Amino acid sequence: MKSTKYTRFCRRLFSKSFEKLNISETSKNRLLEKADISMVYQEYYSMILMNIIIGFIVSFVSTLILYILVPNDITALFILIITSIVPIVIGIIYIQLPASKAKSRGKNIDRYLPYVANFINTMSAAGISPSEVFGTLAGIKLYGEVQKEAKKITTEIELMGIDTITALKNAIVISPSKKFKEFIQGIIGVVQSGSELAPYFERCVERYMYEDLEERKKNLDSLAIMAESFVVTVVAFPLFLVIIISIMGLTSGGISFDFLYILAILILPMAYAGFYVMMKSGMGEEI
User: Fold this and answer.
1) Which residues contact 233 (CB under 8 A, 6 or more apart)?
2) What are the structural domain ranges in the chain?
3) What is the distance between the alpha carbons of residues 233 and 239, in angstroms, rounded to a whole number?
């Protein structure tokens, strides 16, 4: 998410209000950096405030039009409920977005770090300096969010004229991945001590590859459990239930078939959605 004309307009509109609140911006700006949101604290939260206002106006006008067309107690209740829920939902989503994106980026960095460490180890063995290594890494899209972290380091070194150690320290501050922070801190320690980087990278590769293998085994076990649960709950059980209800309905004549419609239209889609959410939330993490 980047700064736009709209977000800059929001900042100009509400900047004085944020200045009066006198809120510390350091932690907020740092969280936005970790989430890769290219805005300062005032700009981002001004955008949230504007979106809440727009959401309230749009929801109020749309429900008011509905009430004018169909004037009754239900549509009047819609005005109260929808105009209350929409702004709250918008606020919650945007306020939680930086922390959610930072967490997601951290997971992505951890996923690619074993292969990044192997890549850096190979380049380091050829005698290439850390600044050149991260410069090369910044141009490889294959490594996901790690590439963005490498770009930040390279930008500070090449464009801003900051030395490698300071750039790496800055990367530690704004990185959302604890494992990547430890990796960078290790590089700084080795460079400052005057030791060779190759042995350190080799140890990192061995450790990260082992941890990655163990994590993949756990994910496979989780996926196996989820697959068995999925087959039992939303494949086998509904089939048996449909057969039993159909037979009982034909024999006794007293059982309604309405439940089958509820099962097909409501219960099964909700079950599928539940399994999808479980997989996305981490139980079936992408491997």
Assistant:
1) 271
2) 5-101, 108-210, 213-280
3) 10
